[in-house]
Amino acid sequence: MTRRRFLIVCMQYPVEPGQSYMTTELAEALEGGGHEVEVLVLDWHAPPGRPPSRTVTPAGIAVTRCFPRQIGWAGGVLRAASKFVLSGRHVARVAARTLDLARFDAMLAWMPAAAIAPLVDLAVRAGIRHRLLFIWDFFPDHHREIGRIPAGLPYRAARAWEQRLLARFDAILCTLPGNAAYLRARYRLRADQRVLVTPIWAETTPRPAVDRDAVRARHGLPRDRPIAVFGGQIVEGRGFDLMLDAAALAAAAGSPLLFLFVGDGRQALALRARAAGRGNIICLPAMPRAAYLDLLGACDVGMVATVPGVTSFSIPSKTIDYLRAGLPVIAAVESGSDFAAIVQAHAIGCVVPFGQPWRFQDEATRLATDPRLRDGARAAAQRCLDAFFDVRHAVAAIERAITD
Question: Are 126 and 168 in contact (CB under 8 A)?
């Protein structure tokens, strides 16, 4: 493959020692494949207003970090809209001032493109030949379906904006075949736009075994109970109602299973309030990644759940961490989900229909307490990681997309 110069534009790119994310994995894999990579980060969840910064990672990748802008006094939809508009303008100004955009062969970005709209137009004018858009969640459709964006004018305006920007990319990469079909059915594409499929990715090396008793003691967890864990952002669209209902049913059935939730987010206070006083639910805040991965190694089954009424499918990224820790996966997902087919085809856990918390708790208990099932899932986990979730698949898809 010809050496290319890539500009990666994203909203998360940790540079602290021991921290990683899918964007860091991709950048380093592209560098390792002989390409040149530079990263422009719009740090969406950071406090707004800070000046840009620039650093070079130990892997030799230059990272320019911008911070969001928004109207401080506004609220609701106006505040959210101002963040998109003002942050997008800000990141484009920083790029124009500090980066020689014309030297890049390709730009990689993620939906929502509306968050970087002026930069997308700037890339077109600068002559960046290959512009690739990754879609993990369909904006704004998914956000309306889980209650993040109200229906009506705000949704229609965001939809029209995203549709216009979609046309500025010459290749679009979806995580599942079903989502490629969703894209073609719900969005207007040019005849020459390429649509490719590549799963999400992350580091796939297995985690070393941990001292389960010591890790549990460190976090105040009982030594003698099986634990079903959810780790990630405590936000809309994660199926917490179903998991909490399953916990209540497990308690009523006398199941020893403990339900553990690890993370922070907009719904964290509500989740902790609902869990208060329930003896089989524990909530822990977000923690450094190494500590979190060790904690997974002291648990017994990883939980995944979606919400009803969502018309596109996704691969929950937390699944990769569960598999690296050797945990079987219990998933409650939409009917017909490609992710359900992955779990079943690779024998890494069990899938139940969404809306059946009694089956969720029953299968979670079984996976957590049956040594034969756990050993089988542990053996299958690494095979699944290598065959499906390795970052080399994403690199190969990108290289196909920019082949002249």
Answer: no
